[in-house]
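Amino Acid Chain and Its Fold in Token Form
===========================================
Purpose: to set a sequence beside its fold so the mapping can be learned.
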Amino acid sequence: MKYVSKDGLLELKYNQVCPSEELKAELLTALMYAYDKSIKHWLLDLTQTNALEDSEEAWLYGFLVPEMMMRLGSDNYLAIVLSESCFTDLLHRLGESGLRSYNSFVSINFFVSIDWLMHGSETDCY
């Protein structure tokens, strides 16, 4: 975990296959750090890890994202960077519309840009 204070960005990068429980514990630690520092921009780099299991995806979107909203308030930005193979797998399983939507409170978009993370529009935040 690394905090880039000049950008107000919390970076989390995993360089190895990360067991599910370890990943969850580290993300919860990051959430508490973000809460203490009022950090609204997250970059989660999973390019070097194995593909997320269905249960891990469900935990991210069903627990972590709502927990971020409750603890940090609105207008949070979370960019998750995946390997090309992981993204292709998700696209194949969920389809483009499945990747773009989650619920009425969370807007999920996919693209190739760090610019959104730093300057996203209100319509892209949760």
Q: What stands out?
A: The first helix runs from residue 20 to 37. Residues 40 and 76 are 5 Å apart (CA to CA). The beta strands are 2-4, 9-13, 41-45, 77-81. The radius of gyration is 14 Å.
